[in-house]
């Protein structure tokens, strides 16, 4: 609470908070810790059993909720701020458990715990095809029928709704992500470069940067499994552009990956960057954090990544935020430019949550979809994508790169393949590392990927494999 | 008589825990290695998992890497361990100091060691600061695929040497003093003493250190995993880390098959080696 | 001859001590220094003294992180280590004693099983499945029995070797004195195997306290994490925050280092006693 009061004193921050939830009345929302809900939120909160008084409605003193997530950095702090606001509002206690930041590991942890009945009360989960791994019908609380679900935008709700039963499983936890090329505008200006619209032009720009300066054309943070996969996964926009049913047909084993030219181009692009020497000297040592800082400082000209890079830049090199611009990952021609997107992972509620905690946990889920909670979120980090909540727009201080990236979402975008097909071998990151450092040609890599994926599909018992 | 005096029930608690938690799961793993399995239900698939495991590219590298890793770390621990233990037992003042220092890394957890070495060996870390300061090129200890495995071996030796030294010191100090005294009367010198008295008497200890560090080298992966995650490429992948990654992806049946293969490999190497060294011991 | 040797050995001594400076001390020095630096400075990864001495801030931060999560982790690690070792010592010594004194029958089979346990890697996922059957998966008791089962073969072999050096006449004398079978073990044999107990307690405490694999598999994210898992989660959360990371690493390493400094003489006593049997 003190935090909130202190923050409201800073006029500049108040302005940014106000921008965060468009329905909020600036000042009062923050100053009173969200005890009073905004008009818009009140309407949806008029819950059947409880009275109208918000303070009387949510009193959960003595209840402790266990929440698990695998998010790190400022966004993790943002979650803590949301939970603190909820604790303040309701008297409940929230214990946070950090899962491994390696996506495979944290998902496996949850999967094992689901299979053995040891899930936390609330946890952050990937959505899309991966949600099935945890057997949502057995493990996740069905939120359908909760009035406040209308806080969530339709497109997100659709993805997290079970088509057969109509069950709604999660609420969005962070912001959406758009993948593409983030570039240093100063470097582009200084060298007189144009924004490339084809991969050829992109490579030409790299060549000019390489020969005309000491700057690395492309920062390639291949140090972590997530860093090495972004370019390749982002290519999926062009894959589905070529064949809208690609993921479905692949899952049903009706096509092979190497038959798709667009899919292969994802590998070729990574290979190009290595072959032509457009990366830093040792991509395998380069962490995502280092790469973000290099981009912001102009030590690297470009970085293929997702909009969440801007949160990292804000944290580590805030002075460089305005230097960074965005353009879509170019492909073979300039007519088909588009971007790949990631929906925010969601908060799931344990289906077997103890009865005494149920109401409190539902209240937290509701709270997480409200403007007050987003206000708290925005005190710790500037959002780098859409919250997927109604009545919550991006605040004014969002960086221009994020705005540019968002503008592509309506124009030409597709969620990445993992939302449509869960087939992914255990060595994907390693194989891509090897492409990005020249150990595998795209042709060798695709054979490996197909083999690796086949094993995964067999292990999952997918029909036809 | 024996039965009354030494009732079996005294052994029951230990055997019960051991059999329930170790033996039964080990036997169960033979079954589960032939299934696709999601912890709740399993479908029998015969030997398919074993075929899949061996068709994986990572397995091929892992087999070779495991062999190198186990051989190098094990022999270094035996040889260096024995040398240092000799030094420690020779009564030199700094012997005890050396013993404590060498043992120190054993006290640290693998995560702590991994974190420390990752920063020390970073391209911008202190080792490379020293190298560039001396006009040498930067060495990418953990991200150059030609040396990453060697780096992991060195760190494992650094960590495990202390245990070997302690075991050797114990073995050496168990050798009765009068053997050396008798040999001194015969006019034997240091080197002769070593080959004629120390070595034959220390062979059981060598056998212990050899077996323990070989088993460790074959099946441990967590230090490597915290250092490199098996990379770059597959250059530091070992069987243990392949199994762990499969487990992480939820391929429990396949991961169990990998574990069974590891079990077979360890058995066919360690059992014969153990009896070979024992026979050698008898001959001496 | 004598003088020449001592000069050579002095040179060797100096070289060895200097070598340990490079191989060991610099790393510890680096870790300690880094744990007292601010984030940006720590990220430089140098051996320079901190520009701003941030020790108190860094260590306080670690203790306060997530409302003192580290203290909770310490509590879990302590319970885990003490209970595992206590149970291990009791059951392994008793089993070893009975198996050593009785020959043939179940004893022979048990011997083979225990010997195999030294070599066979644990079947991780089936073990998890078993713990789940027993309703102790993802619990501290579950992890404790896993640790006991993992360390059981080696400890039993050590005890067996030592028990074999205790002559059977002692048993007979005790029985003539009116000892029952349990009293014979508890009052006569168990005190006699003390050197092995000391070794097992010290060396295996280090192993259990530092164990990462078992907690990761059998208790990952159960909310009651051990200090090793705690440091691992910090490694994910503080990727570039070396100051805090090293502070945490040093904090979790300290208890076992202190234990070692107090008990380091005892380790060797037990080991030597164990080795006597050959």
Automatic annotation (TrEMBL), chain A:
Biased composition (Low complexity): 19-38
Signal sequence residues: 1-30
Residue numbers spanned by region Disordered: 19-58
Pfam families assigned to the protein according to its UniProt record, in alphabetical order: SBP_bac_8
Keywords, ordered alphabetically: Signal, Transport
Keyword Protease included in the entry's annotation: no
Family: Belongs to the bacterial solute-binding protein 1 family.
Name of the protein this chain belongs to: Carbohydrate ABC transporter substrate-binding protein (CUT1 family)
The species this protein was found in: Cuneatibacter caecimuris
Lipoprotein among keywords: no
From TrEMBL, chain B:
One GO term (biological process): transmembrane transport
ABC transmembrane type-1 domain mapped to chain residues: 63-273
Membrane topology: Multi-pass membrane protein
SUPFAM superfamilies: MetI-like
A GO CC term attached to the entry: plasma membrane
InterPro entries listed in its UniProt record: ABC_transporter_permease, MetI-like, MetI-like_sf
Keyword rRNA processing: no
Signal peptide: none
Keyword tags: Cell membrane, Membrane, Transmembrane, Transmembrane helix, Transport
Record field: transmembrane: 12-32, 62-85, 97-117, 147-176, 197-218, 252-273
Localization per record: Cell membrane
Family: Belongs to the binding-protein-dependent transport system permease family.
Protein name according to UniProt: Carbohydrate ABC transporter membrane protein 1 (CUT1 family)
Organism the protein comes from: Cuneatibacter caecimuris
UniProtKB/TrEMBL annotation, chain C:
Transmembrane segments: 12-32, 78-99, 111-131, 143-163, 184-209, 242-263
Alphabetized CDD domains for the sequence: TM_PBP2
Pfam families recorded: BPD_transp_1
Domain of life where this protein originates: Bacteria
InterPro entries on file: MetI-like (IPR000515), MetI-like_sf (IPR035906)
Topology in the lipid bilayer: Multi-pass membrane protein
ABC transmembrane type-1 domain ranges (all copies): 74-263
Family recorded in the similarity comment: Belongs to the binding-protein-dependent transport system permease family.
Descriptive protein name: Carbohydrate ABC transporter membrane protein 2 (CUT1 family)
The organism of origin for this protein: Cuneatibacter caecimuris
């Amino acid at each position: 609470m003190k935090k909130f009061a202190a923050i409201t004193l800073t006029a500049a921050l108040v302005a940014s908070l106000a921008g965060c939830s468009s329905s909020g009345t600036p000042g009062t929302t923050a100053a009173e810790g969200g005890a009073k809900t905004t008009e818009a939120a009140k309407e949806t909160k008029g819950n059947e059993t409880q009275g109208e008084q918000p303070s009387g409605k949510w009193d959960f003193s003595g209840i402790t909720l266990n929440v698990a997530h695998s998010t790190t950095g400022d966004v993790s702090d943002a979650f803590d701020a949301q939970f603190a606001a909820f604790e303040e509002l309701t008297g409940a206690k929230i214990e946070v458990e950090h899962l491994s930041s390696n996506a495979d590991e944290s998902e496996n942890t949850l999967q094992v715990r689901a299979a053995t009945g040891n899930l936390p009360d609330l946890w952050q989960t990937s959505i899309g095809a991966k949600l099935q791994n945890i057997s949502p019908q057995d493990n996740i609380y069905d939120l359908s029928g909760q009035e406040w679900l209308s806080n969530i935008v339709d497109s997100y709700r659709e993805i997290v709704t079970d088509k057969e039963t109509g069950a709604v499983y999660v609420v969005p936890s962070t912001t959406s992500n758009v993948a593409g090329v983030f570039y240093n505008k100063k470097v582009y200006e200084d060298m007189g470069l144009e924004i490339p619209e084809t991969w050829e032009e992109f490579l030409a720009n790299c060549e000019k940067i390489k020969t005309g300066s000491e700057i690395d054309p492309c920062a390639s943070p291949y140090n972590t499994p997530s860093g090495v996969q972004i370019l390749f996964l982002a290519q999926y926009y062009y894959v589905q552009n070529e064949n809208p049913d690609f993921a479905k047909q692949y899952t049903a084993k009706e096509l092979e990956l190497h038959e798709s030219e667009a899919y292969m181009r994802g590998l070729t692009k990574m290979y190009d960057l290595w072959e032509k020497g457009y990366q830093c000297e040792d991509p395998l040592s380069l962490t995502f954090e280092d790469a973000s800082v290099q981009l912001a400082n102009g030590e690297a000209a470009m970085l293929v990544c997702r909009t969440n890079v801007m949160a990292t830049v804000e944290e580590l090199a805030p002075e460089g935020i305005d230097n960074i611009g965005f353009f879509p990952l170019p492909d073979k021609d300039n007519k088909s430019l588009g971007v790949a997107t990631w929906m925010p992972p969601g908060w799931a509620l344990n289906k077997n949550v103890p009865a005494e905690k149920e109401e409190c946990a539902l209240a937290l889920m509701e709270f997480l979809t409200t403007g007050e909670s987003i206000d708290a979120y925005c005190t710790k980090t500037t959002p780098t994508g859409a919250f997927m909540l109604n009545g919550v727009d991006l605040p004014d201080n969002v960086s221009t790169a994020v705005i540019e990236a968002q503008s592509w979402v309506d124009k030409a975008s597709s969620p990445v393949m993992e939302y449509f097909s869960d087939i992914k071998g255990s060595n994907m990151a390693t194989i891509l590392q090897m492409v990005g450092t020249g150990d595998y040609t795209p042709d060798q890599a695709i054979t490996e990927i197909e083999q690796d994926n086949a094993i995964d599909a067999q292990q999952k018992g997918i029909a036809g494999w | 008589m024996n039965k009354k005096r030494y009732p079996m029930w005294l052994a029951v608690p230990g055997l019960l825990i051991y059999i329930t938690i170790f033996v039964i799961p080990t036997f169960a793993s033979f079954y589960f290695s032939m299934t696709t399995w999601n912890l709740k239900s399993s479908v029998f698939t015969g030997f398919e998992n074993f075929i899949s495991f061996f068709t994986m590219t990572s397995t091929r590298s892992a087999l070779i890497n495991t062999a190198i890793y186990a051989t190098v770390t094990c022999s270094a621990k035996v040889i260096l361990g024995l040398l240092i233990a000799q030094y420690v037992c020779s009564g030199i003042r700094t012997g005890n100091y050396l013993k404590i220092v060498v043992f120190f890394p054993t006290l640290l957890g693998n995560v702590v060691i991994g974190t420390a070495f990752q920063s020390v060996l970073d391209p911008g870390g202190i080792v490379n600061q020293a190298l560039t300061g001396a006009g040498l090129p930067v060495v990418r200890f953990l991200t150059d695929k030609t040396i990453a495995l060697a780096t992991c071996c060195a760190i494992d030796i650094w960590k495990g040497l202390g245990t070997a030294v302690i075991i050797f010191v114990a073995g050496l100090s168990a050798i009765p003093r009068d053997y050396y005294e008798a040999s001194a009367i015969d006019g034997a010198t240091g080197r002769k003493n070593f080959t004629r008295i120390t070595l034959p008497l220390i062979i059981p200890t060598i056998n212990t250190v050899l077996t323990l560090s070989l088993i460790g080298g074959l099946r441990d992966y967590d230090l490597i995993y915290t250092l490199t995650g098996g990379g770059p490429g597959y250059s530091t992948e070992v069987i243990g880390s392949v199994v762990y990654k499969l487990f992480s992806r939820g391929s429990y049946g396949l991961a169990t098959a990998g574990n069974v293969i590891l079990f077979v490999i360890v058995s066919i190497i360690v059992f014969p080696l153990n009896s070979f060294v024992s026979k050698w011991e008898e001959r001496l | 001859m004598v003088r020449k040797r001592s000069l050579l050995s002095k040179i060797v001594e100096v070289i060895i001590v200097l070598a340990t400076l490079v191989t060991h001390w610099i790393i510890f020095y680096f870790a300690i220094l880094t744990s007292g630096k601010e984030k940006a400075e720590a990220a430089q990864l140098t051996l320079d003294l901190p520009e701003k001495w941030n020790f108190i801030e860094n260590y306080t931060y670690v203790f306060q992180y997530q409302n003192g999560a580290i203290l909770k982790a310490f509590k879990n690690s302590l319970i885990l280590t003490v209970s595992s070792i206590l149970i291990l010592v009791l059951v392994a010594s008793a089993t070893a004693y009975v198996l050593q004194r009785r020959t043939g029958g179940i004893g022979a089979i048990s011997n083979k099983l225990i010997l195999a346990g030294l070599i066979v890697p644990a079947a991780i996922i089936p073990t998890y499945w078993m713990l789940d059957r027993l309703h102790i998966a993802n619990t501290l008791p579950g992890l404790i029995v896993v640790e006991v089962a993992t360390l059981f073969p080696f400890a039993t072999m050590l005890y067996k070797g030592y028990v074999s050096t205790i002559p059977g006449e002692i048993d007979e004398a005790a029985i003539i004195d009116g000892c029952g079978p349990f009293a014979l073990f508890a009052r006569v044999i168990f005190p006699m195997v003390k050197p092995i107990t000391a070794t097992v307690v010290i060396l295996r405490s280090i192993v259990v306290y530092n164990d990462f694999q078992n907690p990761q598999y059998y208790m990952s994210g159960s909310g009651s994490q051990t200090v090793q898992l705690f440091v691992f989660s910090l490694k994910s959360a503080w990727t570039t925050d070396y100051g805090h990371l090293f502070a945490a690493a040093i904090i979790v390493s300290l208890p076992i280092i202190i234990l070692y400094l107090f008990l380091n003489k005892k380790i060797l006593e037990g080991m030597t006693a164990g080795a006597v049997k050959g």
